């Protein structure tokens, strides 16, 4: 079953109507480009009407319209002729290139050019007069010129469409990059907030539990002093972070970026919270490491001490820093076992995620889990952070 033809475009209906009316006016006025042809009178209206009808399918069936239009133009040569029929045929040639397949758009201009050259040569050989060259010019105007115009317009439209698609793709990529940048910044803020506050809140939770569970006024007073100290320090760190987020200048505050120079103060704070901490730092004295490496090492050590405060059983916590083969290694071990229920502090696991992310951002490695140590079963955090320029980016 044949597929129904789609509804003609409004512009195609307009072209067909103007061509048909123009042809009827020329016929009524007796304006004909040809004379002495076999068919005279109203026969000229037959190819005119056929060509006008083909204009209605110039977009939907361009190749069929061109083929049938060629037959209509050949029939027009048997009549006195109509300029309107010829003009509408040139539009069918243009439409076949503009709206047809890519292969036809490449072949039709070439075929029209060859037809123009062949017609010129054959006419010159047959009539042997200079006027015969006008035949080739006429064929070029009727076939080659509209076909070339259609190819140029098609190429321009395709280039414009490609540019539009590239612009849309660039916009989508820019939006994707923006979303990724926002997600990365949110993850960074989450890591900083967790690392800055978790240590203080964990100490507050543990010492408040101890204060509530003991009847000794002196012990309670000491616990409340630690709670107050951690509360004040935590509030100061929160204010510093909020100030950094509100700063629109983009210049980082050196005080807000901790480094390994602050490791002694970090260890002293952990000892004040009740941890027994030993430090083994074998790094070269005075050697400066890239800022991202020092920040990651500091935060990993800080989070490890916080986890030891929350989860480790009583015992010695060891912090070891070493530099070898272009990498800084951070190893923190704490006693591993069942902690008394009253002193437990719930954890979310985000600390381990943050440490692993910090190491991954530096192209380093990270591992955390139970291990066997000199003092028995321990929980070990081990990170390798490259110190070369490529790894520290």
Describe the structure.
It is a single chain. The protein is an alpha+beta fold and 393 residues long. The protein folds into two domains: 162 residues, no CATH class; 136 residues, Histidine kinase-like ATPase, C-terminal domain (Heat Shock Protein 90), CATH 3.30.565.10. Helices cover 63% and strands 11% of the residues. It has a five-stranded mixed beta sheet. Helix 1 packs antiparallel against helix 4, helix 5 runs antiparallel to helix 6 and helix 8 packs parallel to helix 9. 29% of the residues are buried.
| Unreliable stretches | none
Q: What would you report as the Rg, rounded to the nearest angstrom?
A: 43 Å
Q: Helical stretch count? A: 11
Q: Into how many domains do the coordinates divide?
A: 2
Largest sheet: 5 strands, mixed
> Which structural class do the helices and strands define?
alpha+beta
Task: Tell me the distance between the termini.
Answer: 67 Å
Biggest β-sheet: strands ordered side by side in the sheet: 1-2-3-5-4
Order of helices and strands: HHHHHHHHEHEEHEEH
Describe the global form: rod-shaped
The residue-averaged pLDDT reads 81
Count the E strands.
5
User: Helical amount among residues, as a percent range?
Assistant: 55-70%
Strand content: 5-15%
């Amino acid at each position: 079953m044949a597929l129904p033809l789609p509804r003609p475009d409004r512009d195609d209906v307009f072209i067909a109507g103007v061509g048909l009316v123009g042809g009827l006016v020329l016929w009524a006025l007796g304006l004909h480009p040809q004379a002495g042809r076999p068919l005279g009178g109203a026969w000229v209206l037959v190819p005119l009407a056929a060509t006008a009808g083909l204009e209605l399918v110039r977009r939907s069936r361009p190749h069929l319209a061109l083929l049938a239009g060629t037959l209509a133009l050949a029939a027009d040569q048997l009549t006195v002729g109509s300029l309107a029929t010829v003009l509408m045929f040139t539009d069918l040639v243009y439409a076949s290139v503009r709206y047809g397949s890519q292969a036809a758009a490449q072949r039709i201009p070439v075929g029209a050019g060859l037809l123009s050259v062949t017609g010129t040569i054959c006419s010159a050989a047959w009539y042997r007069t200079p006027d015969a060259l006008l035949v080739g010019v006429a064929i070029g105007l009727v076939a080659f010129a509209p076909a070339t115009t259609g190819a140029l317009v098609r190429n321009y439209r395709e280039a414009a469409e490609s540019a539009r698609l590239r612009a849309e793709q660039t916009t989508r990529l820019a939006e994707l990059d923006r979303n990724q940048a926002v997600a990365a910044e949110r993850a960074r803020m989450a890591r900083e907030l967790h690392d800055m506050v978790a240590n203080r809140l964990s100490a507050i939770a543990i010492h408040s539990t101890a204060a509530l569970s003991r009847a000794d006024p002196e012990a309670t007073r000491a616990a409340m002093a630690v709670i107050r100290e951690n509360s004040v320090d935590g509030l100061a760190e929160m204010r510093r972070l909020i100030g950094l987020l509100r700063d629109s200048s983009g210049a980082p505050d050196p005080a807000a970026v901790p480094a390994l120079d602050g490791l002694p103060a970090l260890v002293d704070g952990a000892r004040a919270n009740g941890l027994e901490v030993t430090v083994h730092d074998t790094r070269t004295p005075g050697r400066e490491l890239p800022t991202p490496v020092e920040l990651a090492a500091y935060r990993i050590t800080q989070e490890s001490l916080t986890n030891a405060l929350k989860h480790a059983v009583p015992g010695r916590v060891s912090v070891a820093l070493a530099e070898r083969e272009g990498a800084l290694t951070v190893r923190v071990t704490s006693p591993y076992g069942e902690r008394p229920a009253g002193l437990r502090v719930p954890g979310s696991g985000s600390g381990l995620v943050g440490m692993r992310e910090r190491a991954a951002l530096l192209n380093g490695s990270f591992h955390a889990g139970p291990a066997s140590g000199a003092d028995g079963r321990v929980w070990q955090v081990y990170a390798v952070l490259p110190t070369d320029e490529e790894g520290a980016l």
